[in-house]
Amino acid sequence: MFKINKLTNGLELISAPLSGTKTVTALVIFGTGSRYETKKNNGISHFLEHIVFKGTKKRPNTLAIAGELDGIGGEYNAFTSKEMTGFWVKVEASQLELAMDVLSDIILNSLMPSKEIEREKGVIIEEANMYLDNPLIHIDDLFEQCLYGDTPIGWTTIGSKENINGFKRDDFVDYFHSQYRVSNAIICLSGKIPANSIVLTENFFQKMAKGQAKDCSIVVSQQKQPEIKLFYKKTDQAHLSLGVPSYPSGHPLETALKILAVLLGGTMSSRLFIKLRERSGLAYYVKTQSECYTDSGYLTTCAGVPLAKVDIAIKIILEEYQKLVTSIVAKDELVRVKQCIIGRTALQLEESDSMASWYAQQAITFKQQKVSKKILSPNDYYEKIRQVSAEEIMKVAKEIFVNNKLNLAVIGPYKDKKIFKDILRFN
Q1: What gap in Å lies between CA 362 and CA 375, rounded to an integer?
Q2: Among residues 98, 219, 316, 343, which is most buried (max CB within 10 A)?
Q3: Domains of the chain
Q4: Strand ranges (E), 66-216
Q5: What is the pLDDT of residues 245-264, one digit of tens each?
Q6: pTM for the full predicted model
Q7: Residues 377 and 299: beta-carbon distance below 8 Å
């Protein structure tokens, strides 16, 4: 069972031991990301994630940081999303003290050297170019732009090239001090956790700043008609994302929504995979996914389809959406999908890094929502999955699959939205 301890500076430490493993993961996660930015500094959360690895007083450059962790065979990385930024190290359990030393050093003592910031601009611009050149990645950003428009949650996490090139050291220092605080942070240890883990965490993270971090603006949907977002690109296939707004994290129907997404396009036996790929031969990749942010969410289906048959693919997706509104899901199909989710989750959580993310992301979401809720263990989550009924699945479908909530993003050689307007509707 996991435990939560509050350190003397108010920082919360989650301990989630795993039996049968020789590794331990230390994850520090902050409730901040691109939706906490302004138009002027959009992209700074992600850029800062890079910069903290560029040197501290104790470890003056990237080589000193990476070399120390590589020297013990550790795995380490960081991530930035719309609402979270995290830093983690996974090591053989006897090396946890060194891992915590390095992790705390880069987070709390980064020098953020101007020379490295200028150098890293080229790296991040190439990362942005990579995303633009990969429609499977870019379509996700395009769909959120379609859904959320010109708002912080609709902007890309990586930011504009203009912003990236314009950032100065003071911008990073100011943003760090506004967001990287005890009130906005969670530490999680998972795996083979030593008996002195609380003392270690106290020693290395006691200097984290107190005080309140900056909040983000609330998402208020005002969509009254279907929305279409096109990105013109000479491609050999059309990449589309067709979806609807849904529920925020913690909503009573969130679990039913996740089941519905897997049922539609989460496996090779899912409805849309079979219909679009196996029966129609229209796509190589098909996936339906749900995203639940702190105050909003969505469900969407992505696929790469022939340029001349994009209209047929859109109609098929809409037909499968509509079937869930009019027909109850059969018991055997629902049981199969539930067990798929449980099985996949169990496989993922055999790793200490996945288990650390499981607990830390729940905890930081509750902080962001300013609510006091029970953090779910994997077994708690499995039970929630099992309790979802076919009637709840239909209730979700009826609430989200309506004409005025439809959103379509397309990457391909298209400039005229009119060719999609007439087909973007339920019959």
Answers
A1: 6
A2: 316
A3: 3-205 (3.30.830.10), 227-421 (3.30.830.10)
A4: 75-80, 85-92, 185-191
A5: 999 999 999 999 999 999 99
A6: 0.95
A7: no
